[in-house]
Amino acid sequence: MVDIQKRNLFRRKSELIINNLMPWVDDKQQFLDNCTQCKSCITSCPENIIVKGDGGFPVIDFSLGECTFCGKCAESCQEDIFVATTQQAWHKKAVISHACLAFENVYCRSCGESCPEEALSFQIGINAVPEINLDKCNGCGACFSPCPTSAISIEENR
Ligand code: SF4
Ligand code: SF4
Ligand code: SF4
After folding, report:
1. 111 is in an annotated binding site
2. Does residue 108 line the site of ligand 3, with CB under 6 A?
3. Is residue 100 part of an annotated ligand binding site?
4. 6, 59, 76, 146: which could form a disulfide with 110 (CB 3.0–4.6 Å)?
5. How many Å lie between the centroid of ligand 2 and the Cα of residue 74?
6. What are the φ/ψ torsions at residue 29 (nearest 5 degrees)?
């Protein structure tokens, strides 16, 4: 029983790390195998959105801000972890849940106003649920913290 609980806890922690991998970290196992937890990426991020996560591994925390895709985290790392920054940074996209205020007929445009890619649009009307243009959304996370109801998550979308 204890083993099962430990295994479930480990799985939840692994999923947490994987959902919050840094940009240009494409292979989660390679990351877990090679990261020495030296913190170079954490101190190099100008947005201060990389934090020490579960198990000591660096992860992205969008509650602290957005990724500007500056590439400093990848440049600072001395290990074989990051792919070339000429490649797509990641496959994350914003996802909006039913916690969005529009479902309560409450006016809100916070996410749309914060999106640098203009990936969010609203139909006319007070209860307009934001629509995401997945071609434009780059998963930067800028819409995450402005949402007053935590209706937005940034998730892997391959
Ligand atoms: S690309 Fe830049 S802003 Fe994004 S996590 Fe890396 S260092 Fe931070
Ligand atoms: S994740 Fe970034 S690009 Fe995508 S909708 Fe949110 S703010 Fe816009
Ligand atoms: S910021 Fe949140 S509550 Fe407001 S429109 Fe966007 S998803 Fe809905």
Report:
1. no
2. yes
3. no
4. 146
5. 21
6. -70, -40
Torsion-angle region of 71 (φ positive above 0: left; ψ -120 to 50: alpha; else: beta): left
Show the domains of the chain with their CATH numbers. 2-76 (3.30.70), 92-156 (3.30.70.20)
Which amino acid belongs to residue 37?
Answer: Q
Give the burial string for 61-89 (b: 16+ CB within 10 Å, else e). Answer: bbeebbbebebbbbebbeeebbeebeeeb
Pick the residue whose CA is nearest to atom 6 on ligand 3. Answer: 111
Is residue 108 annotated as involved in ligand binding? no
Predicted pLDDT of residue 158: 85
Q: Cβ < 6 Å from ligand 2: which residues?
A: 94, 114-115, 117, 119-120, 132, 137-143, 154
Instruction: Provide the CB-side half-sphere exposure for 9 (13 A, CA).
Output: 8
